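Notes to self after the call with IL:
- keep both proteins in one doc
- input above output, always
- annotate only the second one for now

Protein 1:
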Amino acid sequence: MYLRADAEGVPFPPKRTFWPPPRPRVGSSGPRPHVRDLGHLRPILRDGMLESYRKWAIEQDGKDYVIWAGPTPHLVVAEPSSALQVVQGGAFVRNVGPTEALFGKGLLRLEGKPWVDRRTLFADAFRGKGLAPALPIIQEEVARLIHDWSPRREAFKPNRDLSSFMFRVLSRFLFGIELDEQRYGGQPLHRALATLATQSVLEHLFPPTLVRLRTQRQVEEARRWLDAVCEMIYEKGGNTVFLGALRGAVARQQFPRSTAIDEIRSFLIAGHETSATALSWSIAQLALHDDQTEPVVAEASRTLSQPDEVNGLVNTLRWSKETMRLYPPVPLHVAQAAKRTRLGRFEVPAGTRVDVCSYVLHRLPQLWHEPEKFAPERFSSSPAPGTWMPFLLGPHTCLGLKLAMLELPLAIAGLAGAFRFRLPKGPPKVNLRLSLHPADFWIALTPR
């Protein structure tokens, strides 16, 4: 793998390219840019990045294409073969610069051997015996959420409750500690996450120097607050597989304590935010498609004693997978070409930004029959490679995949078995933050 990185494995961003742009060997390069639109930047800001990318992909007949963010060309991937080529490494590295405030020197920003070593260090926490303690924790927290929601008769916003649910699961399982939500969860946590996520999204669109002039003070405050939480977790957390591996690595001087804090922050942010988002969209689908929920409700009463028994919740798993097809929690993977290379029909100069947008790949009519339709039965068979990637694919597949696919089916089945859901203010709207957040999301529920 071609890689320029610092001593801890965080890649240096390849030189930002303005010219030449990626050039197609055949066909057009993409939608026509206009000076009045700053290339394609104004439509993106007006209509949203994801919907703009989807519209242009359909116009380009499902082919990869180039857009211009002002004077900077971006290659947007819409072909599964190209997506697989990018996420499997080789000539491409992740564009990690905009996520520095979120993840520091943590796993989610590493490449090469340091990334392999760090992923290996944590792997036991997310498989086999290491994952077993998560099952009773999830079951207890689902029961707690059902208990808390049962008296509710008025419409309410569930986002914070669902975030707190995933926060408690993660804290108990990964860190061996039940964090006081009044102090560490709720509004302070959401404010810190929103600040850091907003900065990261803006830095993917605009020059980082300009973004930081506006956001630096708020970002520093958010980081200080989160780092204080992570220091407390490191000191007072239980002897879990994850924290045991982390403390052992610090004791062996594999990396400094500051990197351990970065790892706790990385897993704290990414580990609960994306799962909460996926659960939120799944509940919205329960409300929108109440006539399809009977197979899910039928699985609510099943007793599970081992994590792998979740595979028996066939209909609920299909429900969660179809939800994540339409609303992938992390809908965009941003990479850069580390050297001049070929991607599909394009010659790609070194330094070119390459966007692999799962939101687009999951909604293309060239890849999916009636892509806007919610149809869990699609997942009675495995999708074609590169067409469904809510957890990415290849070496950088999400380390927490198995945990997420334990949390989601158990929570969906439990809530579907306890309640009928309505959306009194209509379907939620897509809002790209750190994850694909549901905005204007209100529910009303009726006990079954």
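Protein 2 (the one to annotate):
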Amino acid sequence: MRAACGYAGRYMPKEKNKTKRNWMKETIYILFMTISLIGLQSCNTDNKYQPMELIGKIGKFNAKILLNSNGDKYRGSFVYTDLEKPEIKLEGVKEGEILILREFNENNDLKGIFEGNFKNGDYEGYWRSPENGEKVSFSFSTNESTPEPKREIESNPNQRNLASLNPKELIKTHFSPFKFGDSKSAFYRKENETFEVNFEKIEKYKVGNNEYALVFFSSYEFDENYGRNESHAASGIISIAKYREKSGKWELIKFKDECECGYGDWGNVNLPKLKKYGDYHFLISESGSLHQGFYQSYFSICNTDDFNASAKLVTSASNSGALPENGEELEYDSEISFENKDRQLLMKVRYNGNDYDYSTKKAIDMNKTDVYYFDKKKLKFKK
């Protein structure tokens, strides 16, 4: 098509008699001119509707918007540049200087609305949820030099270990604190509630030649009059950021607030432990609950890709002090082991003892072994 654009209109054949040969030449000429005109229209259309790239931030996250316009109608996509999330489809209209873009998921359900002033390549306003009305500010621009670059946290060049990362800077990167308590704690607001956040620890590991760091934070509901909320279980929240080392800098590749890894109770958190099984790294947490003499313990294993639970098991139980009606006791525990078999990671759970079926009011023999395999695509353990 580039050749057609360049040479359209330059081909001017000489007039000849209307012989069969001349008729063929004129036919070829007409076809050539038709293709040339189509090529010119295509070139003009491509220039007119070149996609527009807006770069900036939504909340505390770097992102970009790709748009195509047709009059006052807009279509495009939104994508986070630092987080491993899929592109989001956008559709909208512009009325005066106000651009409204609606965000849809893969099922074409409305999940969010961008609304703001769009003038001279700058797009500023608020994203809001149609479900609960939550608002998040955004600012985008076609000028690539205006937005902040991808956030990198430099380590001390004379001390390359992870302890040289600054906890205060890490808190500022992932939260929006309005006040610091000390160098490792601060206060922020979310959904009209105040939370206290603390930097907890950094765990590092390697996959091949790549070095990764997991940064752990704990958050608690906070009342400025009464302090940390310790009135109910699960009042502690665990958040995790994942970084990759690149050329002496730590580059953010994933952040998740309120992770399933670990657990919180009565104003405290129990952080998960990083362990390697086979070729994979996991976050392991073990917890227990006691209610009216009935005790259960749990084993949770979360992956380090999206920080979601890959498996959660009840590993032991006892009803000492809370016997069933017929007096039968239940008591069992389990042993968990991992092994690689034919390049497949397996988790074996060996149960010992007996459980109790309250529907039949009979004891159940728990002496068995369950085998799970790790589905590396869905990041889940399955039987």
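Annotation: The chain has a mean pLDDT of 77. The two ends are 56 Å apart (CA to CA).
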